[in-house]
Design goal:
Shape: globular
Helix content: 40-55%
Low-confidence stretches: none
Number of strands: 7
Radius of gyration: 23 Å
Distance between the termini: 70 Å
Mean pLDDT: 81
Largest sheet: 7 strands, mixed
Number of helices: 10
Structural class: alpha/beta
């Protein structure tokens, strides 16, 4: 950091000391701003604070740090805690800003909710602070002909300026969407993803019958399997509606594979996982 005392002998330079002090302040402010921008580009926590001018709460910082590992993340997080804002809208926008070749699948219990996340990502990309960090990501669509050939709708979005290969080393095909939103049970055949985000894949109506739970479990374990590769980051967050729902079985498997467990109910989830595994062992003995 520059020291203002360096300007004490400014008369030797034949420059007014007030001008030098103003210059010092200007340089200091620029360095501070540049650091803020660099931090916002490199960490999810600072991106969240910089673009949205918010002070992160403790559980938000833990969630951002978990996402930044690029490892699988699982969390049972209460409603109205801001989890969807961070996980399903701001994080995809942040990752796509850093790598335009990233491919994201966002799933929720309905296609309508998943599409709302996609719209929110678009809104973030339109923010001036976002464009200052990452440039303009939204393709120009000025004619009806362009709207038919350029994918930019509620279900599929392809950001402009995509590279041939993303930073993970995977080829980005023309058919690959940058953002693909889908409801649970929806078709994902042929969809490749570097990030899979499943946010509230269960609602109160999905836990009424065992068959509903089995269907959701099958979709998660089998249908989405073809979309994953060795470096895919899978993120599952939600709020539990019933002790019968699939969150604990899903998260239990993810934790076994070294997923990062986050949220403000970690202890409760670990205890439920312990009981779930005990029940599995009992059933095996029957």
């Amino acid at each position: 950091m520059l020291n203002p005392s360096l300007f004490d002998n400014s008369d030797l330079l034949n420059v007014d000391s007030v001008q030098l002090t103003d210059l010092f302040k200007s340089i200091t402010n620029k360095v501070s701003i540049d650091k803020e921008v660099i931090d916002a580009r490199n960490t999810m926590q600072y991106f969240n604070e910089y673009v949205f001018e918010e002070v992160n709460g403790k559980h938000h910082i833990e969630l951002c740090d978990a996402l930044d590992t690029l490892e699988d993340v699982a969390g049972i997080i209460p409603r109205n805690s801001g989890k969807s804002s961070i996980v399903s809208t701001r994080y995809p926008a942040y990752r796509l800003g850093n790598d335009r070749g990233i491919r994201v699948i966002i799933g929720s219990h309905t296609a309508t909710l998943a599409s709302s996340f996609s719209r929110s990502i678009e809104s973030i990309m339109k923010l001036e602070k976002y464009k200052l960090l990452f440039g303009d990501m939204i393709p120009n669509i000025s004619t009806s002909a362009q709207s038919e050939t350029v994918k930019w709708n509620e279900t599929e979005k392809i950001v402009k300026g995509r590279p041939e290969f993303n930073q993970l080393g995977f080829r980005v095909d023309a058919k690959d969407a940058s953002i693909f939103s889908v409801g649970v049970g929806g078709a994902v055949v042929g969809r490749r993803a570097d990030i899979i985000i499943l946010d509230d894949i269960i609602d109160r109506n999905d836990v009424k019958t065992d068959s509903q739970i089995i269907d959701i479990n099958y979709w998660f374990n089998e249908e989405l399997k073809g979309s994953r590769h060795s470096k895919t980051q899978t993120i599952v967050v939600g709020s539990r509606w019933s002790m019968k729902d699939i969150y604990i079985s899903v998260i239990s498997k993810m934790v076994e594979n070294d997923a990062e467990l986050t949220g403000n109910m970690v202890d409760e989830v670990l205890e439920q996982i312990r009981r779930y595994r005990e029940l599995e062992r009992e059933l095996e003995r029957v």
